[in-house]
Amino acid sequence: MTDESGVSMEKLVSLCKRRGFVYPSSEIYGGLSATWDYGPLGVELKKNIQEIWWKEMTRTQDNIVGLDAAIMMHPKTWEASGHVANFSDPLVDCKKCKTRFREDKLEQQYVDNKECPECGGELTEPRNFNLMFSTQMGAVEDSSMKVYLRPETAQGIFVNFKNVVDTSRVKIPFGIAQVGKAFRNEITTKNFIFRTCEFEQMEMQFFVKPGTDEKWFEYWMEARKAYYTEKLGVRPTHLQFHRHGEGELAFYAKDAFDIEYKFPFGWEELEGIHSRTDYDLSQHSKFCGKEINYLDQETNEWYIPYVIETSAGLTRSVLIALTDAYEEETIGVDKKGNPDVRTVLHFHPDVAPVKVAVLPLVKKDGIDELAKSIEKELREDYNTFYDQSGAIGKRYRRMDEIGTPFCITVDYDSKEDDSVTLRFRDSMEQVRVKRSELSARIKLEMKNYKRVNK
User: Where along the chain is substrate bound (predicted)?
Assistant: First the structure.
């Protein structure tokens, strides 16, 4: 399936491997299903998105602090949260082709007929499949304790609620934000990095006074949707809200919405906004035998706060950034009369893994040395790339394909007038800029960036 910009999952996977965004994990050994490694460009893209989220959720807020909880936690954590008893999916297998499915994701006609959609074979009876990875902590297996790799980052925030309140002087309403790895033994993993067994979450739990939760739920719904368009540059037409209906809503939740994105394979969840009531803190209080509540100093009232959760996948956000930025643009005809199509990633400059490429027109007469000195100057403020190999047009295309918003060409005139050519990725416009004004001009262009593609 291909959308109007020309992107398909096949093209995206190919570009990611070819340009160093994402590689199959352990590829030299044949790979490992549902695991991926992030290459030189991919890791920069991921770190940029994480930094934008972190700034948006903590540094620009008056009442949100950060946390980095351990991946392995006391096993009672997952009993209290309900994961040990309830974190499972109904699993069915095809007796003929051995394909495995989540029963709740199959179309009803296949469930009713117990028929495999792939080959028409008979499906087994459903059985529960626990999604948590477990391991042993301790030197001797007989005396070791069974622990789990966390399936979500939220519980690390809940068990540290009292610690944060006691040490950070925060007052309700306030939030705790965290970015970290999570692990789920998914039955079916598909669509590249969309659903994997190992992933990273960006979560914020916002603690509020009971009775004010609906107001804050509405606030965070709109704030989180605006984040994707304003901070990541995602097209508004590719975002929508999906409200959890009966059968979708978690047993502890009062309300829940997903922000969905229009992928080449359809509308799928990007981020969840959940009204979790006081379930989590109440459960941990019950299981640990200690009071987990809050004293409102203005009213001298003790209560267990309600929680509004915003939960986004960092690795899924990388996929959104790649998908939304991708465009195949016809810009003329080539020498043979065929359409000249350039592949370009229209990343927001804050998201782009490489901000500025410095390209000497030739590798002689001091042009390359001048270009290298300019590139070293710009390193202080931007992630730069130096490229002196090949025709200048081909180098522009390489930079377009990895989403570099600005290219600087150093030529013979640069030695005479101390100016360079600044090229803009989206419009391909070129202007002459004095070297002394270059960094300030790039900073201004980044601040005023407006996406121009469809």
Answer: 102, 152, 199-203, 309-313
Per DSSP bridges, beta strands 133-137 and 145-149 are: antiparallel
Using one digit for the tens of pLDDT, what is the confidence trace for 279-338?
Answer: 999 999 999 999 999 999 889 999 999 999 999 999 999 999 999 999 999 888 888 888
Cβ within 8 Å of residue 184, ≥6 positions away: 131, 132, 133, 151, 197, 199
Q: Which residues are annotated as a binding site?
A: 102, 152, 184-186, 194-203, 269-270, 309-316
- pTM for the model: 0.89
In 264-364, beta strands by DSSP E: 266-277, 294-296, 301-303, 306-313, 326-333, 339-345, 356-360
Helix axes 392-402, 9-19, angle to 10 degrees: 120
Helix (H) or strand (E) holding 392: helix 392-402
Q: Which domains does the chain have, with CATH numbers?
A: 9-72+142-322 (3.30.930.10), 354-447 (3.40.50.800)
Residue ranges of the annotated binding site for ATP are 184-186, 194-199, 269-270, 313-316
